[in-house]
Write a structure and sequence with these properties.
- It contains nine helices and four strands, in the order E-H-E-H-E-E-H-H-H-H-H-H-H.
- The protein has 203 residues and is an alpha+beta fold.
- The chain has two domains: 77 residues, Glutaredoxin (3-Layer(aba) Sandwich); 108 residues, Up-down Bundle (Glutathione S-transferase Yfyf (Class Pi), Chain A, domain 2), CATH 1.20.1050.10.
- Strands 2-1-3-4 form a four-stranded mixed sheet, with helices on one face.
- Bound molecules: glutathione (GSH).
- The site of glutathione has 9 residues, from loops.
- Glutathione binds next to loops.
């Protein structure tokens, strides 16, 4: 059975969401991050970066959340994967863009606002990161203004991956209502039963 390391409230979240979408059986492997188990020799043998998520499926051990999701849609075919090289290319395009361009400022803000206590908070980091968001969200908004989903007129792993990143806006208080197409699309993605099952998982 598939085993997954990492809390559903971490970067592993998008992998849990996809596992639920695909209806796959999986077992959560406990990892006490407060006790630094993710830096233990045992875990570093699975994932040398000492981060989560990490997924084990039979002989395969794989880390990096977007790579895990790519593996899952390749190994367990469903309408969520790309049906043609063109679709697969566009799924990769949006997924890479979201994690490389959009997630970075959001994580910088998240770390400051959630992990750094107010007196030590670096407001310069927060404001610089916040200033990067509008042009990125506008790219997404323009694309979604004329379609319901990012690629191929159906919900794919591209929507799931990008929605998992855009969702961080809610945790850092970055309002999405000015981006009407993004806001409506995110609500559509989050209304999926698999997202509801994932969101209900214990942290
Ligand atoms: N690019 C990685 C990021 C993984 C990542 O940063 N995970 C965080 C939790 S959200 C982590 O394990 N942090 C622990 C650490 O850096 O020591 C992915 O998407 O899988």
């Amino acid at each position: 059975m598939i085993q997954i390391y990492g809390s559903p409230r971490s970067s592993a979240g998008r992998c849990y969401w996809l596992l639920e979408e695909l209806g796959l059986a999986y077992r959560r492997q406990p990892l006490d991050m407060r006790a630094k188990e993710h830096k233990s020799e045992r875990y570093l043998r699975l994932n040398p970066t000492g981060k989560v998520p990490c997924l084990v499926d039979g002989e395969l051990t794989i880390w990096e959340s977007m790579a895990i999701n790519q593996y899952l849609v390749d190994e367990y075919p469903s309408p969520l994967g790309g049906a043609t090289p063109e679709e697969r290319g566009l799924i990769a395009q949006w997924s890479y863009w979201s994690i490389l361009d959009l997630q970075r400022p959001l994580i910088d803000m998240f770390i400051q606002l959630v992990f750094v206590p107010e007196p030590k908070r670096d407001h310069g980091v927060i404001e610089r990161a916040r200033a990067l968001l509008p042009p990125l969200l506008e790219i997404l908004d323009r694309h979604l203004a004329s379609r319901e989903y990012l690629v191929a007129d159906r919900f794919t792993v591209a929507d799931l991956n990008v929605a998992s990143v855009v969702s961080i806006c809610g945790s850092v208080g970055h309002e999405l209502t000015p981006y009407r197409a993004v806001d409506a699309w995110l609500a559509r993605c989050k209304a999926r039963p698999a997202h509801e099952r994932y969101a209900a998982l214990d942290p």
